[in-house]
Design brief:
Bound molecules: adenine
Number of strands: 10
Number of helices: 7
CATH class of the largest domain: Alpha Beta
Distance between the termini: 37 Å
Helix content: 25-40%
CATH superfamily of the largest domain: SPOUT methyltransferase, trefoil knot domain
Amino acid sequence: MRFDILTVLPGLLESPFAHSILQRAQKKGIAEIHVHNLRDYSSLKHKNVDDYPYGGGSGMVMMIEPFAACIEKLKSERNYDEVIFMTPDGVTLNQGIANELSIKGNIIILCGHYKGIDQRVRDLFVTRELSIGDYVLSGGELPAAVLVDAIVRLIPGVLSDETSALSDSFQGELLDAPVYTRPADWNGHRVPDVLLSGNTPEIEKWRFEQSLERTRQRRPDLLGE
Ligand code: ADE
């Protein structure tokens, strides 16, 4: 699977992709992540990528030309399944959307900044607009990193224990049960006995009950309650 991310701040995206699971997925050749600096696609003398909004108002608007030039170059090289714009007014990302995107081949992700991007980019190129939650960040880079992480860990062969993505919170509509590791007793705070019992059916039963209770307490909406 291939991601092409268009941004004015490529440096912001270096670290998130250089560690842990995302790094391993790239090393294994399962995921390719390419970050493109939109300034490289500006035809203006000072490599500007934004300008004042028509009709007035505060903030700068990102221009269509650099987006168009970069997207058209990429599309001339391969086909893309989606062009996704990260924006707080998009559809809120969830596990279902991540699952759906994890079986795609090539995805372009657009990161906006300033006051927004010229509406024509959204009208002409974007296939899907995604938000990572009801709060406003300074740009689409962190949301893009969140999206790529959520997708890549679902691609078969990325997680060493292939079942572990399947047991994640949300994957099966329930939140995860609590987890513990050594020591079994920390200053009198003990790990639940059942987890030390070695009785697998009892442990499974306990985990299911805990998942259900946690979901009831924290996210009754997931149970349709
Ligand atoms: N850009 C700024 N805020 C955002 C958000 N919450 N989700 C996606 N993109 C964004």
